[in-house]
Here is the input.
Amino acid sequence: MTTHDPQPSRSRSRSRWIEDWDPEDVRFWEARGKRIARRNLALSIASEHIGFSVWSMWSVLVLFMSPRIGLPFTPGEKFLLVVTPTLVGAALRLPYSRAVTRFGGRNWTVCATAVLLVPASAAAYFVQRPGTPLWVFLVIGALGGVGGGNFASSMTNITAFFPQRHQGWALGLNAGGGNLGVAVVQLLGLLVIATAGDTHPAYVAAFYLPLIVCVALLAALRMDNLAVVRSDKGAQREALRTPHTWWISLLYIGTFGSFIGYGFAFGLVLQTQFGSTPLEAASYTFLGPLLGSLARPFGGRLADRWGGALVTAWTFVAMAAGTGGLLLASAKGSFGLFVAGFTVLFVLTGLGNGSTYKMIPAVFAERAGREVTDGGDATTAFARARRLSGAVIGIAGAVGALGGVAVNLAFRAAYGSEGGSGAPAFLGFLGFYALCVAVTWAVYLRPTGTLRQLEAPPVRRGVTRV
Here is the structure.
């Protein structure tokens, strides 16, 4: 095992760069690395949380849009409004992940947080102006998509801070804290409707303006850049050539794509299928994303113990069963069963998000272990594994977010006609979850699958199962 001075060198201290970082070294980690990593994790969660809130803000603002405030949009137009930021956020995840390796995690977090002032300010101004055309809101919604990119840059950055043995829990906390932004903005919408009525959507957007400024300043003052993240310019290109990148991305479509797609659409689905008022819809929409976000770290922890592939496979089995429950609730017109079924699905997506992301560092750590067994240098192999993990996290995050676009487009098609039903959309989701179960088993769990080939006695402390 390579040893280091527990005091990391900082030849560029003014810009808060850490030049020497090896969290797999237990002495380094306990002496100083753990404290630095946890500080950066806390601020990363805060930035990602606000990014998710701004990204998913339109799932709340559309509940206010009605002829009462001079914005008489149809259900199809409202679904288009929630699709737009989802699509832009997905598209930005790859460049955001790459930006960390170019500019540094601390520097990019400051920039990515501060830019959220633009869509939040525009939403606060225009959403209260009667007669504003749809295209203006589509532009603002697209600008809000920048919040969705924060996830990829944040996860890529945090992966490098933690040793592989702690990454399931750390990534789960980081992502779960960010995902909570969906629930919090919806809870804020409920609070506004309950206290000020359903004609003041600007209050929701304006609430975030001082928070954005505060988190950007804290990130500038207290976060760090890791030189090891920036040292490999070709990690993303190499990750694109790795089959695991695409298998895991497919699974992440099923978990995170479902989480963000349902989070954006749930309130509109309740309004369209059951005729819920804005207050009724807002009263239920926050609960699912809240529980799903809280479940994500536990999905990572379960994966730390049992293996990400096994937890992910059983999660998809349960999601398929839950979707069957939604079909039953829709057929019976049962509002209570429908809300309960959706809430269970949110929890399952959270568990699956954590377990699927845990598979990423585990796959590359196992591969690094085999390189060391074949005579390679341990420090080099595991540093490369961390860089590739960060790249795959960005790619899987981008592809997974496209699942949210697909979910909302499916709902838009299902509810687009007069008297439309969500049943066709739910049948499509059920089929996709069945596909994910089959892929997880075939690639990672069957006796001749990749997982069985990767499993070997660990050559370095912290190597765990996929």
